[in-house]
Design brief:
Length: 211
Amino acid sequence: MKNSLHFVDSSEAFEWRDASNAVVDRLVVPSTRCGCGVEEHALSPSKKWIVTSRWSGQGECGFDVIQASPLKRCGGFNDRLGYVLQLPAFADDESFLLGGYGDRWLGGWWAHPDEEQEHPSCGGELHFGWLFKHDLHTHDVTFHELRMTFPLDWIPDDPFAETWYGPLGIAPRNGGFSLTLPGGKLFVYTGPFSDVIHLPVPTPDGTGLLG
C-alpha cells in the first residue's frame, strides 16, 4: 500500500505515513507572526509537488510550494495584504502554477479604497488585484497587476452578495489564463503575462461584460 499524505493542524506539519500509520517523513510549515498559516493544500497531478494557500484571518495571505518527496519547502510567499480565495493551479505540464489575491476580494473592489462596498465606483482605471506566477523550475515568482476601468457610479446590483467577491477558477490556459469574473462570467486571457493586465468590467447584474 502506498504512503498517504496528511496535514496535522495541531503541529502545523505535513506527514507521509505508511500503511501502519507510522510517520516516514515530516515537514513543519509554521504560521507567521501575523498568524498566516496553511488553510488548504493539494498534491499536483504528478504527486511531485504540494501547494498550499495561507490565510491569517486578519487580511494577510500567502502560499507554499513544497517538494512532496522528500518533503522540502521550495518557495512561496507570506503576509501579503489580501485574500487568496482558492488554491493556486498547476499548468498541465507542471512547469508553473498560477494564483491570485486582492485586498478587497471579499467585497468592495469597485469602490474607492477609503469607501465601503455599498459605495459606487468613482470611475476610471482602478487596481483590482494581483496574479502571481510561480516557476516550478527556478522557484521565481512574478507578480502581474490586474486593473479594471469603470464607468462613473458603477456598482453591482447586490454589492453584498458573495458572487461579487474576487475572481474564482484562476488557471493556466494555452499560454495565458482563464478565470471566472465576479458576477459569474468566464474570461479568457491569451497572454502574454505583462506587468499590468486589464480585465473587462462585468455588467451590474453579472450577465454580461461592459464594452
